[in-house]
Design a protein that fits this description.
With 211 residues, this protein is an alpha/beta fold. Helices cover 43% and strands 21% of the residues. Helix 3 links the parallel strand 2 (41-46) and strand 3. Bound molecules: S-adenosylmethionine (SAM). The site of S-adenosylmethionine (SAM) has 16 residues, from strand 4 and helix 4.
């Protein structure tokens, strides 16, 4: 089933893209892209044979033809046409492992990591990959950040690395609440740690004013 996160991912796909959805799970995204003719071609892969079996069943149920691969990232995907890779619903370390296993011919990544977004943003730059756009979407009371990443250089700063470049005021308010909870939990004598998180709150408030 397409949720807000998968729709946000689909919004970054263009009709000229040849897409591989790694971590496809039940292939909802690939089916949606194919059914609505939103890209040139789409393939689906997953490391888990059970997930892939359900994906194949869903693809057949939708009366579509989508080639699937059982693969850890792109390690056993022998397809030279792919230029766009989706990596979503896994942690930052897996995202980075998958990027390392990908050929240099990949022009575009669409990424939604389950965790450590600031670390991921920082690391992507080390691989000469740059976040062009980001959206933060709310789905079932949880925020998901989706990043459009290419090799085109983009200047970033501390704030875009830490908090991203989505223009979603509600998401920034959500980050402020998280920071407030962190401050509440830090003992009063840990002055520097408390200061750092209070500074984060001030920065987020400034970012909201600029939107
Ligand atoms: C939570 S599901 C995400 C499904 C969908 N991409 C989404 O974002 O809603 C995570 C999927 O990633 C797959 N996965 C985890 N590590 C992987 C890897 N290294 N390569 C390919 N698939 C992986 C799991 O088997 C699982 O099906």
């Amino acid at each position: 089933m397409m949720n807000q996160k998968l729709k946000a991912i689909a919004s970054f796909v263009s009709k000229y893209d040849t897409v591989l959805d790694t971590c496809c799970d039940h292939a909802y995204l690939a089916i949606y892209l194919k059914k609505n003719k939103l890209c040139k071609e789409v393939y689906a892969s997953d490391i888990n044979p059970n997930a892939l079996a359900v994906a194949k069943k869903n693809i057949a149920g939708a009366k579509l033809e989508i080639k699937t691969y059982l693969s850890d990232g792109l390690k056993t995907v022998d397809n030279k046409d792919i230029d766009t890779v989706v990596i979503a619903g896994v942690g930052a370390d897996t995202v980075l492992d998958i990027i390392r296993s990908a050929p240099s011919s990949i022009k575009k990544y669409i990424i939604s990591s389950n965790n450590h977004l600031a670390y991921l943003r920082h690391k992507l730059r080390k691989y000469n990959l740059y976040i062009q756009e980001e959206v933060a979407v709310l789905d079932k009371h949880k925020y998901y950040v989706v990043m459009l990443v290419t090799k085109d250089y983009v200047k970033d700063n501390r704030n875009t690395i830490r908090f991203g470049k989505s223009k979603n005021v509600e998401y920034f308010r959500h980050l402020i609440k998280k920071e407030e909870k962190v401050v509440d939990r830090i003992p009063k004598n840990k002055v520097f740690r408390r200061f750092r998180h209070k500074q984060n709150i001030k920065t987020l408030q400034k970012l909201i004013k600029r939107i």
